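for the recovery benchmark. tokens below, seq after
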């Protein structure tokens, strides 16, 4: 459909205003909301994610495309409940205690949102207790933790231990990532998954929800 192609093209260019306008137009023309979401917005972000994985696009392009996608989703969101559209899962995300980096976390957050996950972003320098309290409050499927400093990686281990001590560990899946983080480290602290980049984080989140 021509309008869906136009939405995709505008999203690839990072043109937020055009994406929002075309999304509203598709809605006004009576197009199925799920089709607009899946074929116009989500599938386009998946393409961006694959290109990012393959080093064909870089962080600035991902950010502007993600913002454009959000502009389209914002038009559709008020209609989600009426049309029975639910999030794939609910993710609590944050950069751990002792670390003030947020670009990587923000990209992961945007990519997850672009794939229809509901996101609760706790921000940076997040204490262990804040992650635990978020899980305690219920309705959380995945905890995603980011660390860009070797000195803050221990906070990931502390958070997982605290979730265990609180009897909450089995209620959620845990994904960790960040420049110094490795699969070996993720395994050693008992995380369910490791993601080396934002696109992998989305794939891993989807995979863990099926388990």
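predicted aa per position
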């Amino acid at each position: 459909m021509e309008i869906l192609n136009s939405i995709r093209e505008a999203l690839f260019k990072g043109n937020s205003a055009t994406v929002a306008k075309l999304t509203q137009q598709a809605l006004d023309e009576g197009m199925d909301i799920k089709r607009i979401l899946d074929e116009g917005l989500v599938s386009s972000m998946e393409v961006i994610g694959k290109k990012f994985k393959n080093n064909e696009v870089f962080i600035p392009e991902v950010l502007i495309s993600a913002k454009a996608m959000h502009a389209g989703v914002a038009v559709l969101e008020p209609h989600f409940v009426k049309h029975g559209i639910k999030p794939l899962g609910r993710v609590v995300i944050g950069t751990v205690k002792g670390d003030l980096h947020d670009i990587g976390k923000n990209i992961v957050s945007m990519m997850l949102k672009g794939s229809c996950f509901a996101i609760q972003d706790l921000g940076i320098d997040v204490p262990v207790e804040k992650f635990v309290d978020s899980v305690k409050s219920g309705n959380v499927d995945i905890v995603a933790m980011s660390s860009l400093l070797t000195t803050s990686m221990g906070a990931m281990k502390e958070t997982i231990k605290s979730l265990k001590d609180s009897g909450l560990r089995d209620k959620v899946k845990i994904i960790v990532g960040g420049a110094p983080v490795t699969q070996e480290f993720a395994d050693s602290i008992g995380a369910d998954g490791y993601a080396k980049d934002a696109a992998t984080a989305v794939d891993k989140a989807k995979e863990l929800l099926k388990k």
